[in-house]
Amino acid sequence: MKIALDPGHGGIFPGAIGLVPFELKEKDVTLAICAKMSTLLKKQGHKVLLTREGDTNWESNVSRDIRKRAELANNARADLLVSVHCNAYSDPNPEGIETWYRVENKRSETLARTMQQALAVTFSDHLNRGVKPKDLLLFRYLAMPACHVEAEYLTNPAQLEFLASDFNQEKIAQTLTQGLLNFAALA
Fold first, then answer.
1. Nearest 5 degrees, angle CA 70-CA 71-CA 75?
2. Predicted TM-score of the model (pTM)
3. Structural domain count of the chain
């Protein structure tokens, strides 16, 4: 299977920024997780495309940058795309893991449910915020099933520490990889 991994944000687009107990940018966490996923998936014999491989952006306009990421996945004829993100909120208390999918796309919904199920099993001590349809700009440009994983809240101090840990990033990558393998087994 050819899998496109989209590490959310990058370059001039930092994404969410957690500030307590230290500063952590979403773009750094998502790149670390996707790089680890790429290695794991390649070991399983899958082809992997990363929409970015460093702290970069394609365009200076966020909408055009998102469109370019979709274009990369479409041109590579990826079978699916997983976009990895960290959540944020103005209140430091929200926490939890959730997965969004492309509206009215059954394969995207199945992919999202499979990914969320893997996360909920591995991280059973985290709040399971479920699976939700979302009309994201990235989804509009894609020609393949896709989901968007929100790994935790960077604005929650405890979850920021969780996301900053290399051990936890590896565990998230392993879990998302297993979710993808579970999805591939359904096909």
1. 120
2. 0.97
3. 1
